[in-house]
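Long-time lurker, finally posting.

We've been working with NAD(P)H-binding protein (Saccharopolyspora mangrovi) and I want a structural starting point before designing mutants. I don't trust myself to interpret raw outputs, so I'm hoping someone here can both generate the structure tokens and explain anything notable. Sequence follows.
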Amino acid sequence: MDDLPLAVNLPEHDRDVPGKEAITTGNVLETMSVTKVAEEHDVVISAVGGGNGAAHQATIKPSAIALVEAMRALGDKAPRLISVGGAGSLKTTQGQQVWDAPDLPENLLQIMHAHGDALDYYRTVTDVDWTNISPAAHIAPGKRTGAYRSALDSLVTDESGNSSISTEDFAVAVIDEVERPQHNQRLFTVAH
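Top reply, 14 upvotes:
Generated this for you. Predicted structure of NAD(P)H-binding protein:
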């Protein structure tokens, strides 16, 4: 797999200067590559995904393993790890997992289960400071309101049973977790 952008470093004095971002590349599936990118940072946010279901299965859990191994290699200097997951493993109001809904396309099920496999792996990790955040069932570009509701293992829905969040508000939720950690070694989810 080609090197992928793994970090965007924004030095404090350049954060408000357009075009001053430094992009560091590496391979998220290779522990040493992740270690080099992660050292000297306080937080690593992983949002690995894209492509079809088979691509997710080939990258999501393997990248989780490489990320955890990189944090372990950094020892006491390891940054906190926040990983973006999927909504498939969340519980519905009926008590079943989202991926158990009837008539879901196979490609979508593969993506959901790839994120679920990574979450299952994270849940075995007790020596790394990790958090897994799942978006609502529907996430798409929209309006940034700065408002969202959260839950631990259950799908967050509105009064009509819809579960959605804008990508902008999802990003706010991720940054809120970076700045005010509340879900160490846990899954949580957010929605409007």
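Before you design anything, note these points.
The mean pLDDT is 90.
The radius of gyration is 17 Å.
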